[in-house]
Amino acid sequence: MINFNWPSDCSSFPGNRCTAKLVFIGLIFISFLSYGQNNGLQFSGQNAVQDRRTSLDLSFEDDLCLKGNFELSFDLFFSPKQRDYYGYVFRLIDQQGYNIDLLYDQKSTNGQNFKLILGNRFSKIAFNLDTGILLSKWTHFSLKYNREKDLLVWSDGYHTLSERHVKLTNSECFKILFGANHFKRFKTTDVPAMNIRDIRILVNEHLNFYWPLDELEGSSPLDRVSGRKAKVENPTWINGNHSKWRMIKSFTVKGHPSTAFNLNKEQVYVVAPNYLYQFSIQDESMDSVSYDAPRNLKAGNQSIYNPLSNDIYNVFIDQKKVSKYNLATQQWNQPYDLPKRLTKYWHANKVISKWDSALYVFGGYGQLMYKDSIQRYDLKNKVWSEVKVNKGVFKPRYLAASGISANGENIFILGGYGSNTGQQMLNPENYYDLVTFSLKTNTFKKVFELQRPDQDFVFAASLIIDSAAQKYYGLIFPNDKFNSELKLVSGSLLQPTYQILGNSIPYLFHDINAYADLFYCPVNKKFIAITLFTDDDHVTTVKIYAIDSPVGTGSVLNKIKRPPYYLYLGGILLLMVGLGMALIILRRKKVREDSALPIVGMIELPDIAEVASVSSDLIPSATSKPIQLLLFGNLQLFDEEATEVSKQLSPLLKELFLLILLHSLRKEGGISAKMLDEILWFGKSERIARNNRSVNIAKLKSFLDRLNRFRLNKDSGYWRIDIDLEFVDVDYIHYLKVVQSQTASEQKVRNLFELIKRGPLLQNLEFDWLDGFKSELSHEIIDVLLSQSRRPETTKNPELAIQLADYVFSFDPVNEEAVILKCRALGLLGKHALAKNTFDRFVKDYQSIYGDAFKRTFRSIMQE
């Protein structure tokens, strides 16, 4: 019953990559799933007691000996909504007791939260990263040491800092410790609430050690190069959290409780006869609020949270009884006086519609009858009515799942158990149809029917609808046994395909004693399952389970009949022939040499000395070049006939194109074949990855050759895309010229406005590797805009200041400097009410992202 608009990266469960699609004569569809983006070790930090904080010792078996130049690199992001992030990210200690530490201090007075410590002193390597970046995405950190120069170099994608005379020239073997540790005088329990993955150690540019930290469980993560074991204390494995449900709360209550979910606060409510229990998903804490008088909650009552009024409604359908609990005043508006008989609407579905401010109840079961009635309760006028609908599409049933579309106009109902006549004695059966109910027309429509599985199943109450991706998520379970189990499934809203996600949850099922529901938390990125079971003594056991999103995939159950074995053999034969032909063509085809074609990776930007100012011709309003490549906003590539041709690329080819292109433009020199394999075909054998790469490189080269002004080559040993800039206009190259010009002027900012007005870099695409490019670009743009905002001429131009702030907000919605700039500019224009509204909206967003109140007041920023 909960709806959410999943971000574009969640439309296919980010972190799980479909790395290959082999189609045999249009009949066979096979997906290979990678979990690489869900890897990592979650560190319990200051939020946990000292004994429960996480430590990772890479040198547990023996010191790590790094003879020569070496590099330590890893990915990091912080767990959101923690009170304190102070602590050691890592400590590197040589055999003489000399230490190199990376420390994070969120309360640093000089604004440099990250500090690199050398022995007993702070080094020159100190920097700050925006909290929004640290809390929202993985950031790649790298520490390199050059032994000959005694030089230490730090890089995080935003800063490159160095220091000489580090005093490590004679040190070759080290203890390497992340988080807490118990090593001699260096022991510490100061740990930031962080997540670490993909720890690599290179010696003389050769990979000696690699801990992906992709374990599901255990305390001995394995180095994939040398087979060394590390040691972890108090681990929480991200991969495990994405593949296994864990019970986060279990308790008992007397009587017959019901459940509801507050999506805004991500709280589960258990409405019991004497208390309202409130369980927070964020910190897994629970409190209870007692009522003025006990509630008469009969078996079969249901509860639902109303986001329109921030109330909880408890409903007993038989008597059309509705009681409202006000969360602000902690009061019920009326008592119940219910009869003793059992409900006739067991496991009916319920949905609150924002479209018409009404509660809808579908189906149910009782007194040997399945229901197909649709009942509506007007939340404003407090009136019940029965909705007259077209008969025959929605068959009498219970134990179905229901959810609502993003626009609030259509309700989805999937599966269930019932009979065509509604009578239990006449051929009851499991249903597998997906139907929609239009709130505009009060009509049902059948979308499709799943093929009947070998093991029949029904659904828990709620269906999570991802309207953007046209997908749903639900909990299924066999309804023909007492010791049952719940499984999460994901399916298409357009065709009868679905797949099982994660492992199963034990579930005691007897329809008048049991209840199960599913919720989704978009901030904490978790699915929540809740089960109730009431025993003969009327004591109900409540269990709450969580699994992180995206969830690891089990078997694909796309219910298309399996083709005969000879079609598989024929498909394999065709695939082998196709691959062989592709290899022959690649070997025979000569690479065209075009010496006049400039290499994008080696573009020479204008000499700063030659540029008096960044003129507007860097940003042509209408390009005269026949081919145009746009990377800001949505990806668009127009050929010489002005036809948008990027749509011809499959998702994989589009990613391959961008991966090589951006490494050619930004990183200079291109990208190695090994890195392509790690990113696009992670987890595949070297042979399979190489074959996939060869086939897709050939496809991409054919596509680029047709454009005639792009050349894909590997002349330098790295894959690179060269562009003939005389005929091709690339907005990203204009951007590089603007930001690399050191001239500070209003014209420079206007040029930047012209570029980024289409939107952020590749805003419709989300890849893990792309985050670094986007973050780096965002950081550069924000720096340019805020630098301009501090200039005297900007303070005298409130319209420009508002533009600057709005563009900063498009990259960093909780930038403190931007909200101050905009509020003051609006104040100068006399728009004080609008300034206050801007500030209030910022404070709300700040609280939502950081889980903490913004420390400044509106008065203070306006008077400063």
From TrEMBL:
<dbReference type="InterPro" id="IPR015915">
    <property type="entry name" value="Kelch-typ_b-propeller"/>
</dbReference>
<keyword id="KW-0472">Membrane</keyword>
<dbReference type="Pfam" id="PF01344">
    <property type="entry name" value="Kelch_1"/>
</dbReference>
<feature type="transmembrane region" description="Helical">
    <location>
        <begin position="565"/>
        <end position="586"/>
    </location>
</feature>
<protein>
    <submittedName>
        <fullName>Galactose oxidase</fullName>
    </submittedName>
</protein>
<dbReference type="InterPro" id="IPR006652">
    <property type="entry name" value="Kelch_1"/>
</dbReference>
<dbReference type="InterPro" id="IPR051677">
    <property type="entry name" value="AfsR-DnrI-RedD_regulator"/>
</dbReference>
<keyword id="KW-0812">Transmembrane</keyword>
<keyword id="KW-1133">Transmembrane helix</keyword>
